[in-house]
Amino acid sequence: MTPRLCLAIASILGGLSVAGGAFGAHALKAQLTEKALATFELGTRYQMYHSLALLLVGLLWLQVPKNSWLGYASWAFIVGIVIFSGSLYGLSLSGVKVLGAVTPVGGLALIIGWALLATAAFSLTN
To answer: Which of 96, 93, 103, 104 shows the shortest CA–CA distance to 20?
Structure first.
């Protein structure tokens, strides 16, 4: 992973979040139950939040390219987005309840991403 790849992935995931939100609001609104739609929207919301966090990581990483903690944080955010939001999308679209058991793994990866970002901040030198 490089800072530029991190920025590119953040941009792609952010754009997909907007597209997913629009898809949910328009195409899925009549197809899903209110609960399933809320689950889908939660996935898009967290995807956007963490795409922005990933964008921040990439921008910081451009400024301090030797900070390996930022690289670790970027991977944690990417894995977290894919697992957390992806499992919520799958759960809402398919109704397969076991996907709900996978969601906390993605949430843990997102939390680890934030912890790694904090570690990166504490490792900065003046």
So the answer is: 93
